[in-house]
Amino acid sequence: MKYKTSEDFAKFPLMVMESSEYSPNQCVYRNDEYGIWLYHANCIEFMDMITAKFPGGKFDMIFADPPYFLSNGGITCHAGKMVKVDKGQWDKSNGPEMNHEFNMAWLSRCQNVLKPNGTLWVSGTHHVIHSVGYAMQQLGMKILNDITWEKPNPPPNLSCRYFTHSTETIIWAAKTEKSKHLFNYDKMRQINNGKQMKSVWTMTAPNGDEKGFGKHPTQKPVQLLERIILASTIEGNLVFDPFAGSSTTGVASVMLKRKFVGCELEAEFIELSSKRLEMAIKERASVLN
Ligand SMILES: C[S@@+](CC[C@H](N)C(=O)[O-])C[C@H]1O[C@@H](n2cnc3c(N)ncnc32)[C@H](O)[C@@H]1O
């Protein structure tokens, strides 16, 4: 993969890339005034280029919602019907060793692109989260918390052979053991009615309003990203999401006056993301006027 000219660098806030066999690798949505940049890119290639250009790290905080590797022919309940779990090719498992290799690959890049005191949040179900936690330990990151996101209205378990799956785990980690991470303790206590915020967060899955431009199969609620961003960044910080999907992280960043860079591989989600980001920018502009 080749860089373009230095003139191109000057025009774009982060970088210009060329397409590879994996992805077009282009900046497809940008708003310089609000500090929002979305790349149609393979996040591993993208982060390698960020590291080459900013070896000391670039991002204050990263939220990553990687493939869960759970689209493997199981069943679930959707809108009252039994359906196969098939979120897309990107979500298929390649076996535990290959999945762990992939997690090591993208997590090591996240570590490179974080600023020295930056933190990384990774969400997942049991299909992926244990490998993520182990990889973080192998990479020498400091695990700060594991948050349990509890969904009050999960779909029922149709097989009746398991407990109803109703939680996801979000691991919060600092770049290294030596990082002096930012935690907005007072803000968290304030939004929790004056009590210390616990590590179990109860929040519903995204509602219809959040899916007005179309659905992403694993879309996160904006409320969840708002809490994460409020807990670990300040206004003006630069937030990165390597697996942007429908850009929930970007929407929450816009609303909370943080800057955002996202990467997404699939064209259909790029389109959805662009619409959601545009709407969030309009909403924030109307709040300010
Ligand atoms: C679990 S979803 C993220 C959903 C997102 N948090 C949201 O709220 O919409 C993971 C996303 O990562 C994308 N993806 C998978 N591999 C990727 C890669 N190597 N680079 C960039 N995006 C990738 C998939 O297309 C999918 O949209």
Structure characterization notes:
The chain is of the alpha/beta class. It has one domain: Vaccinia Virus protein VP39 (Rossmann fold), CATH 3.40.50. It is built from eight helices and eleven strands. It has a nine-stranded mixed sheet, sandwiched between helices. Strands 4-5 form a two-stranded antiparallel sheet. Helix 6 crosses helix 7. The N and C termini lie far apart (44 Å).
Bound molecules: S-adenosylmethionine
DSSP E strands, number: 11
Helix content: 25-40%
CATH topology: Rossmann fold
CATH fourth-tier homologous superfamily: Vaccinia Virus protein VP39
| Global outline | globular
Sheet with most strands: 9 strands, mixed
Structure summary:
This protein is α/β, with parallel strands linked by helices.
List keywords for this structure.
nine-stranded mixed β-sheet; 289 residues; binds S-adenosylmethionine; alpha/beta
What's the topology here?
Elements: H1 6-11, E1 26-31, E2 36-40, H2 43-53, E3 59-64, E4 75-78, E5 81-84, H3 96-113, E6 114-124, H4 129-138, E7 142-150, E8 167-174, H5 185-191, E9 200-202, H6 222-232, E10 238-241, H7 248-255, E11 259-264, H8 267-288
Parallel strand pairs: 2-11, 3-6, 3-10, 7-9, 10-11
Antiparallel strand pairs: 1-2, 4-5, 6-8, 7-8
Helix pairs in contact: 2-3, 3-4, 6-7, 7-8
The structure holds S-adenosylmethionine.
